[in-house]
Amino acid sequence: EMTPEEIAFQTRIDRGEKIEPKEWMPEGYRKMLVRQIGQHAHSEIVGQLPEGNWITRAPTLERKAILLAKVQDEAGHGLYLYCAVETLGISRDELMERLHSGDMKYSSIFNYPTLTWADMGAVGWLVDGAAIINQVPLQRTSFGPYGRAMIRICKEESFHQRQGYAIMMKMAAGTPEQKRMAQDALNRLWYPTLMMFGPSDKDSVHSAQSMAWKIKMNTNDELRQKFVDQTVPQAELIGLTVPDPNLKWNEEKGGYDFSEPDWNEFYDVLAGNGPCNKDRLGARVKAWEDGAWFREALVAHADKKAARPYA
Ligand code: ACO
């Protein structure tokens, strides 16, 4: 049932060739990429909000400078990714419109609040840690502009992950109160982080087609398992406890057995009912509206310059 063009396309994918923007691609491939890269870009931008929340309250000047740089990096990631989506023939204005109307998603994790300074540690350690595990394989994704954006993004994410872990390490070795804050941040963010990898494989709508096209390189459950296996020893090293009574090393599979997150909560957050959905989207819509005068001025200036005759 595949057309000759589609068969030739799949052969290129199977050979490991990269697909570039001006080359022929099936409409479904283009749509899958717009959806995934677009959501990814939106996640980077919305993801600035929970950490931006703590810039003014960082405990030292050094921590403030580090956090500021990290949050700026996330803006950069969003911009590379929007550029990658634009090569697929959709404008940035349309992507924004689709985010603001609730038609396009962003990662569920950013709908949870950041309540204490320890959350800056836990977000860097867990959320950016999960992002790296998800994104390292995407460096080999079949669409050229997406894979290339991932190379730089992963380098920066690994700095982000380490700065988060360094905060956790410091707090876990601090006063009993500080250690309690670190443990509390881990308790609250553990399951929402596991949800970042998406629903279990049996409920993942897009995985099969996305993996056949090498847009996704691994299933959701594979990457979730990898995250747990990597993160549990890191928690143990600094004397924190992963909040899962069923967590147990399984010699046979060479990985941990662990509890699934509450999938009802996951779908509820996706439906817009997480603790911060309204705040997050509200903040993005307000930023867009507040920036309208600036976008108009930029266009007016560009038009004036273009109309000016050369001397
Ligand atoms: N948050 C919000 N939506 C999600 C999440 C999540 N954590 N996980 C899955 N979904 C959505 C999917 O987008 C899809 O909805 P849609 O059809 O309306 O787009 C639906 O749930 C079903 O899930 P899947 O079929 O498994 O979707 P998919 O194959 O796209 O896998 C995944 C989801 C793993 C997130 C994939 O899109 C991906 O790898 N994206 C790139 C990485 C990324 O976006 N990271 C953002 C967070 S990390 C960061 O930026 C700091």
TrEMBL record:
Q: Can you name a GO cellular component term?
A: cytosol
Q: Source organism's superkingdom?
A: Bacteria
Q: Name one GO biological process term.
A: phenylacetate catabolic process
GO terms of molecular function? phenylacetyl-CoA 1,2-epoxidase activity
Q: What is this protein called?
A: 1,2-phenylacetyl-CoA epoxidase subunit A
